[in-house]
Description:
Rossmann fold; 3-stranded parallel beta sheet; hydrolase activity; hydrolase; HAD family hydrolase; Class-IV_PLP-Dep_Aminotrnsfr
Amino acid sequence: MWSGPRNLSTAMMRAFENRADCAVSDEPFYAAYLAQTGLDHPMRDEVLASQPNDWREVAGQLIGAAPDGSTIWYQKHMTHHMLPEFGRGWIAACRNAFLIRDPVRVLASYVKSRETVTLADIGVVQQSELFDAVADRLGCAPPVIDAADVLSDPARTLGALCAALEIEFDSAMLSWPAGKRASDGVWAPAWYAGVEASTGFAAPGGDEIPVLPAHLAEIAQEAAEHYRRLAAYSL
């Protein structure tokens, strides 16, 4: 599942992990991304120590049989972690889906955990590029779901996603126990407070669009065309 940050991505991981037949992986390229870019993110040292720093090692771990004898392996990937110098051949061994969200809402949420943000940090451009690469290989659009649709009708949207991925929908995906998970990345204390308190997909908080300060509004405007293009393929 390819998404940017603050896209409902961890809640989606919770949903799949609550299936009895599914193993999950949380942002496996995060440490390699930080090591390559030198960026300062919350808990940077802990992230670097928790995962392989070489993208080749990570990619080699992501293909083949699912862990623990599971029949489904849900890999939560951040699109901006896939730097141009990281090989992408492994992606063809997976079924790829795309989780999108209105960039205005992404940015309003992102800056609550990290004040500094650029267009590249929210992964919308990279997501568009990855979508095109997968679509070109398949000859058709891969599955796309919008976080707003997940929140407004989780059963319908997750049902459509499962159908597109040719797996059975499981109602266990609609709720989960609150709390931390051993599968969560070591960075969870900096980012996952909301999902740790959750027991399911919260209903949307209304249709009011956040008002962004000028510097964030400019980023949102740049991201909007990429979001809208993928939104046209939403299930």
